[in-house]
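The methods section describes the discrete structure representation at length, but only in general terms. Each protein is reduced to its one-letter sequence and a matching series of backbone shape codes. I believe one specimen quoted in the main text would settle the matter. An entry of this sort, consisting of the sequence and the corresponding backbone structure tokens, reads as follows.
***
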Amino acid sequence: MDAHQGGPRDEAIRLSGEADSTADGAGRPPATPDVRLRAVVELAHDMAGALTPLEAVRAAAVRATAALEATMAAVSVWDRESGRLRVLANYGELAAGEEEFPEDESYPVADFPEIVTYLDEHWTTGRLPRAWVQTAEDTDPGPAPDHPAAGAFCLQRAAGLRRRGRECCLVAPIVLHGQAWGELYLARTAGRPVFDEGDVDYATLLAAQISAGLSQTERLADLRRLAFTDPLTGLANRRAVDARLEGALQAHNRDNTVVSLVVCDVNGLKRVNDQLGHEMGDRLLERFAHQLSLCAAKLPGSLAARLGGDEFCLLVEGQKADEVVAVAEDLCARALQLTEGEGVACGVASTGDSIGPVSTADRLFRLADAAQYRAKASRAAHPVVAGRSHGPGFSPDPTVLLADAADPHHRADGRRGGPGQRGNGDRRRFRGAARSADPGQLLTTVLAALDQNEVHRTSHPADTLARLVTVAETSARLLDAVAWWVSYVPPGSHLMRTAQHAVYRMTSGPSSTGAATQRAQIEAPDAVFDLRHYPLTRRAARGGGFALRAGAAGNDPSEEAVMVVSGYKGMVAAGGPNPAGGWLVELFADDTTLPLGQIAAALRALVAVALSGPTSPPPD
């Protein structure tokens, strides 16, 4: 882990302990530390709930405006490709020409070189880059390090303030992953008091919290990409298909939008794997995925996906059934031209054909599967289309009959057999390996468990602990971990207590009486740790993570002691704050546990998901 001095939680605790009872020059009582600390927590909550980076920066601008009693705020990013400081969001009392989400408001970074200069303090001291104040008339850069362009950039700031009728501005650099990312800009109109040193300290804290929020938003974006993307081919995965198909069928049942599903099995993959090796088999899958993407481009709005193994699909919404079948014909022809391949078995099911009512995703998938099964059984070089192959005397379509016969809950109206009943489950649905240390598999498995809990409401929506326990327990079983802990830190406290834990098997820890006593204390349900003695754990509970292997050089002695006393050989931890407090999930390993280090980033992303949404502290 990188060395770290200070941080959002350190700054917040410092601010909460330094109440100033004086009023500022305008007679306005300063914001109380409690109000400002609460604003930091609210900012973290808002940014954690943001679905996109733009939503996150707007939340930052809104909270910063209120917390610092500014008349407006802006968040800007340094676009290194263009060399410009680009405004992402403005909020508050905007001047002429300013927009809430501007498309082209940007300024040359050369006019504002302090975005880089202020990083010197971070690099040389490890502290947060300090915010600074500029007035409309003052060209003194204040505490900024000396550099040749100091007068120039102050003139630019002052001129901008005068042009927009503002008295002063407060600029806080935002640093992300050790690099200058952009800035938080706050302003007050003429007649309002100038920002003071307390405001500068607080803006520095807010910028650090914004950085943490942006980092989490990035992780969530990575999580969404991993959760909905097949890592081998880059196509969508089954999870993405399920999500898109649900909405497509809602549109179909609402306004009769045509929804079609093309399902393909790549023929000959087992032979290629056995005779030429799995690397050549992967190349065959990648080449077919490329052809599927090319075909999907002919059907606007379609989704090309790999369902798993040798199985692919194309989900199409709003296109005529004949157009989809024509593209499926082309796909079959392209597949026959692939080197080492033997073509594909292709089945098509479309609500634009005579397949009966389709109100569920299971039914459409079952119809496409039945069509694909018939294509494979007959070694057809062309797609089999459900609803287009009638028997003598226009008897029912054999594909539809096959699909309905395989579904014990099917009814004549196309609906399920009754409330709460489920079919046998599609054979392509993710079942999960018994054990896996693959980060993508961990994401898929844990997300599915979280989704399942939400669907069946196994816990209250605001129960943060229940969501984190799902992450910990599902991850531990997939990795064959020896134990897991979920811990909690009350707001403003440095004491972390165990909220819930599980030990699946005992380990061979130290045998001395003192060690055994300490081990029992660590594994007690009400164990309490002073985070001032556990630096990695303290940082993780603020939104980070780490992995340790027993005996590795450079381990923190206090952190390693927690493992060694209990006989653990490794651990991985991830955590973060939400309005209820700080949280930490820890997984522990023995000799039989799969490697934990490679899943650290995925665990951090999963914890971030579990911490979002409605929250509550653990029960006392």
In short: The two ends are 33 Å apart (CA to CA). Confidence is low (pLDDT under 50) at residues 1-29, 141-152, 411-433, 509-522. The chain has 19 helices and 17 strands. The longest strand covers residues 166-176.
